[in-house]
Hints:
52% of the residues lie in helices and 18% in strands. It is α+β, with helices and mostly antiparallel strands. The protein folds into 3 domains: 13-114, Helix Hairpins, CATH 1.10.287.1260; 141-189, SH3 type barrels, CATH 2.30.30.60; 196-276, 2-Layer Sandwich (Alpha-Beta Plaits), CATH 3.30.70. β3 (164-169) and β4 form a beta hairpin. The longest helix has 34 residues, at 34-67. The mean pLDDT is 79.
Amino acid sequence: MTKTSGFNLGPLQPLADEVVREAGIVWAKLSEHPDMMANIGWAALIFAITLVLSGMASDGVKRASRRLVHKDGDRTLLEFFSQVVRWLILAVGLVAVLNRLGVQTASLLTVLGAASLAIGLALQGTLGNVAAGLMILLNKPYRIGDTVHVGEIKGTVHRLGLFATEINTGDNVRVFVPNTKVFSNEIYNISTNAAMKIELAFEVHRDSDLPAVLALLTDITNRQPSRLSLHEPVVGFQDFTSNGVIVKVFIWVLPAQAFSARTALVLDIKKHLDAAGVEIPYPHQIALNK
């Protein structure tokens, strides 16, 4: 039995001796077949070249997509295409490696074709994600950089992959959403249109001077710095309640400014209503002690 020398591994010594023995047997067999050793070397070289080429091709497409960010090119398409190129090169390289090792790839493909139904059933989730990704790419419901709302997830699209869409949420969490889930859900794209409507609804006291309130709110909305001039603000009364009258206010802003514009509008309305003595009613609780 071949033994390791130089140091003692204690309880692991028998296992180490067995590994050395098996390695010696493999090396002896390979030494008897130099052609096999050469084929393994060539296969390893082909595999390494394939990895390098796939990475270079993918990076090249990504660099092209970054150059097109300031143009009219579809960066989402190029990002998706870069992944397709990478996987295709890897597949071709794998076939070349198998050929070099003496594997009959034609027979292998025949077997895979015969087992395509079983393979399809086993990979139906993965293949479904790829198909959904292609449908998203063709229909273009969103692009990289768009703010979207998919199911319970809201954020900015970071990447459309072969199997999943990556979305960065507002709290700086990256969510990987399977493409099948994205495609089967309603997709709200906040970035599609240049303007986004902000809606406020609140009550004013029933004894308020409603025409004066209407004029005051109209003036406030017209003076909002983030308001888009292409859309006139809308102010009106919607309904009566037991305490007062419901007021509705609409203004249009850029999607990226929606939250800050809404905050500024609420503060401005509250400030001016208080200054004008207009009361916003709130529910009162009455406690009865027996």
